[in-house]
Amino acid sequence: MSEDGPGRMSVPIPALADPDRLRALGETRLDAVPDEAFDRFARLVGDLLDVPVALVSLVDADRQFFPGATGLPEPWAARRQTPLSHSFCQHVVDVEMPLVLPDARLSPRVRLNLAIEDLGVVAYAGMPLTDLDGRVLGSLCAIDSKPRAWTAEQLRTLADLAAACSSELRLRIAVRGAEEARRRAEEAHDRLAMLAGMSQMLGGTLDVATAVDRLGHAMVPLLADWCLITLVDPAGRPRSVSGLHRDADREGDLARFAELLVTGLGPESQIRSVLRTGRPVVRAVAGLADVARGGTRPELVPLAERLGVGSHLTVPITAAGDRIIGAVTLVNRPGRRGFDDSDLRTAQDIGVRAGQAVGNSRLYGEQRHVAEVLQHSMLPTLPTVPGIELAARYLPVADRVEVGGDWYDAFVQPDGELVAAIGDVAGHDIEAAATMGQLRNLVRGNAYGRDDPVEKLVAQLDRAMGGLRVPTVATAVLARIRPDADGLRVSWCNAGHPPPVLVRADGTVAVAEGRGPLLGLARAPRRTGRTLVLAPGDTLLLHTDGLIERRDRPIDEGQADLLAHLGANGPGGSLDLLCDRLLAAAHRREDDVALLALRAG
């Protein structure tokens, strides 16, 4: 400024607002509070130059502040800062040279500066304080309240002290730079670790909601203070928006914000722009105006204010063929650094990985639905038979899309007898399901209308599988149930399948022993039939090995657990309740389960 004070126009000093200079000034982390090292420099100036006031004065865009000071009058001593209207040191920054004034009242540059009247500044000598790039951050100055002829020795001493003071400033900046470099390195390491584990983390589930939740927890708070994940329908419209905030107290606000965004994205919304164009959007500095401009729901703005908006970026979630299926939005609150190119590259990588995970999850959901419809279409409706209660269940493994080879069947012969069967074809794919359908139809066609013993029916099934080249081995139990004077007579034959379990009306439990070779062997074996009687209230349980088998233990232990469970709970209640209890108790299932239970009335 040419002159400072009331009644004069102030000419702005461009150097004061230089962003590089202000950034270096900020990296010193000094402010209007005492700092012992810089107070020591001020005392040295006061002692060596014999002046009443000495200052380490740093100048930003709208004030000067004194981390080092001695001799300042009140209230300035307590405040440790003044506005630029009281600053001589700003002119040192402007000219980037020492400013030496024997009597400031005679200098056209500062004669109207308020420091003369309010601080008693008359004689002034200020030496530049610089960073490593030579930018002037302020001055080390000596001040007297009366005119003074500064000697060459005094100015040389002041210059030497200013050089030492500049070294201290540079050290502070270097320490800050080292800390920032370390923080960046740690952040980069954490991001690489996150990206390295993200594919495995997202690939560990085939459920879309779980994948989205894991994605949010991976990004917050490492990359952002909060995030939004938008998924679209086939027409490209937002179908769901979810998010995560680092502050658990803001979960309700974020949930409402996400809910409103599903239908509240306006034409200028940056999320909508990314969904439409596939190009990312970064706002290193942002605010509530962005939210107001991009949304159509007034409630979004106060919600965003509570959530905090200081910067944000949005990248597309892309599936196979660069198809856009959603967007990831990262948001930082005010006070956290704005997003930069490094953040953008990380977010874009996340968008690709998220697209793979979400795409796989959606494909899995579609395939699983088709598989379940196919599987259940192959399972029969149980017949109604006088004197016999029937119940059945089929439960696929929850985390697998394949259809399985487990099956059950029950049908009534022309003479009124009931034929029941359960079986398991090797494999968990469409071929296994197709073979299972063939085998079930062979059982029906082979047994319907015939009065042969069950062992002969199973032997004929062996021959049919060989002659028709059914490409599998399988297990099965075939049973014929007919009324008996004592209840129900059950004739059955086991072809390599887990044996039936008998639950008597009095609560006793036993395994119906007898197990023959598998179905479908190259050389058909001799089959053996067995017979048991179900008294009124007795239950016969047929099941596949998924109910009792685990990879980490022998199948005999699983069967023992089943018997113990049945013994502890007894036969009480309906068969439907019994089947539900058995499925609920089958923890850590690794295979599909089929159950067929029948009870003598």
Automatic annotation (TrEMBL):
<dbReference type="Pfam" id="PF01590">
    <property type="entry name" value="GAF"/>
</dbReference>
<dbReference type="InterPro" id="IPR052016">
    <property type="entry name" value="Bact_Sigma-Reg"/>
</dbReference>
<keyword id="KW-0378">Hydrolase</keyword>
<dbReference type="InterPro" id="IPR003018">
    <property type="entry name" value="GAF"/>
</dbReference>
<dbReference type="InterPro" id="IPR001932">
    <property type="entry name" value="PPM-type_phosphatase-like_dom"/>
</dbReference>
<feature type="domain" description="PPM-type phosphatase">
    <location>
        <begin position="385"/>
        <end position="600"/>
    </location>
</feature>
<dbReference type="InterPro" id="IPR029016">
    <property type="entry name" value="GAF-like_dom_sf"/>
</dbReference>
<dbReference type="InterPro" id="IPR036457">
    <property type="entry name" value="PPM-type-like_dom_sf"/>
</dbReference>
<feature type="domain" description="GAF">
    <location>
        <begin position="33"/>
        <end position="179"/>
    </location>
</feature>
<feature type="domain" description="GAF">
    <location>
        <begin position="203"/>
        <end position="368"/>
    </location>
</feature>
<dbReference type="Pfam" id="PF07228">
    <property type="entry name" value="SpoIIE"/>
</dbReference>
<protein>
    <submittedName>
        <fullName>GAF domain-containing protein</fullName>
    </submittedName>
</protein>
